[in-house]
Amino acid sequence: MFVAYCIYMFPEIERILVSREQIADRVQAMAKEIVRDLQEDLAKDGQTPLDEDNVIIVPIMTGAMIFVADLVRELPMKLSLGLVAVSSYPGESVRSKGAHFATELPDNLGGKHIIVLDDILDSGQTLALVKEMIEKQNPASLRLGVMLDKKTDRTVDVHVDYVGFEIPDEFVVGYGLDYNGYYRNYPQIAVLDQSALPSR
Ligand code: IMP
Ligand code: MG
Fold first, then answer.
1. What digits encode the pLDDT tens for the residues 156-190?
2. What's the topology of domain 22-38+51-88+96-169?
3. Angle at the Cα of 9 (from 62 to 21), degrees rounded to 5?
4. Distance 44 CA to ligand 1 centre (A)
5. Residue 89 gets which letter from DSSP?
6. Contact partners, residue 13, CB within 8 Å, separation at least 6
7. Ligand 1 pocket test: which of 151, 170, 177 has the largest number of ligand atoms within 8 Å of its C-beta?
8. What pTM value is reported for the model?
9. Domain limits of the chain?
10. 37-57 pLDDT tens trace
């Protein structure tokens, strides 16, 4: 039933790279890694996951929205969300056009433990930009996580602490990732039929 619905609703999907089940398992495992690291950080300062005002998750909108919605529900601790929007793939682009902030970064990150989460690491520009700007606020700790790490030439070298899956250098959609604003609600990570993309 689910497969038939997907074929009907999303005829341009050519291939599934990461299934719903694989995503769900990996998100749980990533959440465990994050909780472990944050607990260690908090313990160093004599704090516990029950204490307020320590942990802020920064999702990079819009792509990280579905990943973060799933992940934060696996983090049993006191935390808040501080959204930021970064744009680099306007409209029908399938290559980065250079990252820039589309909203202002939250200004309350100083002294807090920050986890920045994005859907995918591609050229590296988005995460490098967000990291640089957050560092200026002097957080207590700063870690980066992505659902997908695209194996491509980075224009910026950026270290990511948590990676869901490594994928080949292909343009993907689904689970938050879009092409021209669409397919974010496709529940798996998939490749579009070439005919649905502009010729490169
Ligand atoms: P970077 O700045 O090149 O690392 O790109 C990261 C951003 O580009 C992500 O936040 C995504 O929004 C977008 N992006 C990169 N690759 C893809 C893709 O294959 N499909 C959809 N969006 C992508
Ligand atoms: Mg993005």
1. 999 999 999 999 999 999 999 999 999 999 999 99
2. Rossmann fold (3.40.50)
3. 65
4. 35
5. S
6. 6, 7, 173, 174, 183, 186, 190, 191, 192, 193
7. 177
8. 0.95
9. 22-38+51-88+96-169
10. 999 999 999 999 998 999 999
